[in-house]
Design brief:
heterodimer, A: alpha/beta, Rossmann fold, 2 domains, seven-stranded mixed β-sheet, five-stranded mixed β-sheet, globular, B: alpha/beta, five-stranded parallel β-sheet, two-stranded antiparallel sheet, 7 strands, 44% helix
Chain lengths: 313, 282
């Protein structure tokens, strides 16, 4: 099966929605070939602005466009969007709650060879603490398309986390309809809940299959919407399965697993184990090798699932 | 500019200076120095130049103003109150918990504030975005932005300076409030941005230098900017920090310190005298 990276799906979605929504403008910071906004640029050259290698200017220019009724998609690598331009995202987009969409590609360690300076493992934590910021993390091409749609339909700032690596389709286009703040139940089960986001959904699906083969019943959920988070669904998983594994291509501190745990601890505490990067920077290597190095794998999800099941009361 | 018009603007400017003193004194905090230096620039923009309507603050065709040096909020609030966007009664609530008049301007709380600012260096980029939107929509509104001379030490200003020139934003006019002082001292001693005119020229801008307290020069510069095609204009306005209040003028200490009751009283008396002298002239 052909693999499509979520960044590629992002570029395609922008070009597609650009036909319908004439207020969409796309900005990039000299990475349009990598973020795939080039696809939009070719179709709508007048509505594309290359700001050059200047991410702070990128974000605040997008803010200015938004004050005049445009729907700007400010696009660059996640490490620059959420890191380098954090103050601009916070003060010029988040604080005035402007209608800017941030397309943040190359998130996580799976960009591979470029190494730690370019691998963003803190963006979920940074973005979800900005009041009013929506944080989306699609797992495949179709969910990316849906996340772009949600971003357009939502009035306010949205951060969309995208990957560089090609991934298999989980959903068929036209058969997935995302709702802001809602997760996607892939299967229900009673022994352990696995909640995954982004690239790790693929590993979670593999893990669930292997666990099922061992007779373990898995409640499996894809969570493309990290903020607002699906509280009802998280509580249902906790009540039905009694323990949870979270999986994310991000530092376990402050990220998706933390967001899930915040919901649980205040409402219905159950044991949680987190699969993610354990408070480390990334390193260079082939994407597959880097993912294995940091144990961002189905095997690790299985290990954690078995550990957390023992913690059930 | 005819004498009567100039006199009228001078009176408004003096009222605005009084308001800056009243606001900062009521709050017990705020930034009087850099508010007082920009008074003539904003007075001219808001009372002569800009197409704005307090009854329709969201008119898509209105001219835009971005206060990039957001700490000069008392100046912006004073002007907005004088132009009817907010009530003058609100001004004494400046920086207080139940007031909408935040320490730095919040566009979601105050009509007429076009952008929430306060973190320095971001306003020029925002103004670029507004100017780009005007070009995209084929609208002829103009965008004005006020930068501080200390503020241009922020690298983002130069990113934005490149963008404005690259996209030929001739519908954008920036003012540089060149009062020479920042919190820690003279800008040339803290981190010199000089020569600012040569820098903006090198970045592809049309540069005009004026006395920033002279309404005739401000008018001439704003009108000249409107004739420049294919590039943005910066008006480098030589100003005096704390202008209009004898003991605040050119004193670095008045950057972010509010006058106490006695100081405020003294400042208001001085300003009242200036106003009376203008009345005599009129």
């Amino acid at each position: 099966m052909a693999k499509i990276a979520t960044r590629e799906a992002y570029g395609q979605a922008l070009a597609e929605f650009g036909e319908v929504y004439k207020d969409i403008v796309v900005l990039d910071a000299d990475l349009s070939k990598s973020t795939r906004t080039e696809i939009f640029k070719k179709k709508f050259p007048d509505r594309f602005f290359n700001i050059g290698i200047a991410e702070q200017d990128l974000m605040a220019t997008a803010a200015g466009l938004a004050t005049c009724g445009k729907i700007p998609f400010a696009s660059t690598f996640a490490v620059f969007a959420a890191g380098r331009a954090y103050d601009q995202v916070r003060n010029s987009i988040g604080y005035p709650h402007l209608n800017v969409k941030i397309g943040a590609s190359h998130a996580g360690v799976s960009i591979g060879e470029d190494g730690a300076s370019h691998q963003m493992l803190e963006d979920i934590a940074l973005m979800r603490v900005i009041p009013g910021m929506v944080v989306l993390s699609p797992s495949d091409a179709t969910s990316t398309y849906e996340c772009v749609r949600l971003a357009i339909e939502h009035e306010g700032p949205v951060y969309i986390r995208l990957g560089r690596l090609g991934v298999e389709d989980i959903y068929k286009k036209g058969e997935l309809k995302l709702t802001l703040g809602k997760g996607i139940v892939l299967q229900k089960g009673t022994d352990v809940g696995i909640l995954a986001t982004g690239l790790m959904v693929h590993e979670a699906i593999k893990a669930a299959k292997m666990l099922q083969d061992e007779g373990i019943s898995v409640y499996l959920v894809d969570m493309p919407c990290i903020k607002p988070i699906d509280v009802d669904l998280i509580l249902d998983v906790a009540k039905v399965a009694g323990c949870i594994v979270t999986a994310e291509e991000h530092n376990v501190l402050g990220g998706f697993g933390s967001a899930v745990s915040e919901v649980l601890i205040q409402n219905y505490p159950v044991p949680v184990k987190m699969v993610g990067v354990n408070d480390e920077f990334g390193r260079s290597g082939k994407p597959e090798d880097v993912l294995k190095f940091y144990k961002l794998t189905a095997e690790e999800i299985i290990n954690k699932a078995k550990e957390v099941m023992k913690m059930k009361k | 500019m005819d004498k009567a018009k100039e006199l009228e603007l001078k009176k408004i400017a003096t009222e605005i200076r009084k308001s800056i003193i009243i606001q900062t004194a009521s709050a017990g905090s705020g930034h009087p120095g850099g508010s007082l230096s920009g008074v003539e620039i904003l007075t001219y923009l808001y009372f002569v130049e800009m197409n704005i309507d307090h009854k329709n603050p969201q008119d898509p065709n209105r001219d835009r103003f971005v206060l990039s040096k957001g700490h000069a909020s008392p100046l912006l609030y004073a002007v907005l109150a004088e132009r009817g966007f907010i009530s003058k009664d609100e001004l004494t609530g400046f920086r207080q918990i139940y007031s909408n008049l935040q320490g730095h301007p919040d566009m979601k709380k105050v009509p007429g504030v076009e952008m929430s600012t306060g973190s320095l260096g971001q306003g020029l980029s925002v103004a670029n975005g507004m100017a780009l939107a005007a070009k995209l929509d084929g609208k002829d509104y103009r965008v004005y932005v006020l930068l501080g001379d200390g503020e241009i030490q922020e690298g983002q200003i130069w990113e934005a300076a490149m963008t404005a020139a690259h996209y030929k934003l001739d519908n954008l006019t920036a003012f540089l409030d060149h009062n020479g002082l920042q919190i820690d001292g003279k800008i040339t001693e803290v981190m010199s941005p000089e020569p600012v005119d040569e820098k903006f020229k090198a970045f592809g801008w049309h540069v005009i230098k004026i006395d920033g307290h002279d309404f005739n020069q401000i008018e001439k510069a704003v009108n000249e900017a409107k004739t420049i095609k294919g590039k943005p204009t910066i008006i480098i306005a030589e100003t005096v920090k704390g202008k209009g209040v004898s003991f605040m003028e050119n004193e670095v200490g008045w950057h972010g310190t509010a006058p106490n009751k006695e100081q405020a009283q003294k400042a208001l008396e001085e300003l009242q005298k200036q106003l009376e002298m203008l009345e005599v002239q009129g």
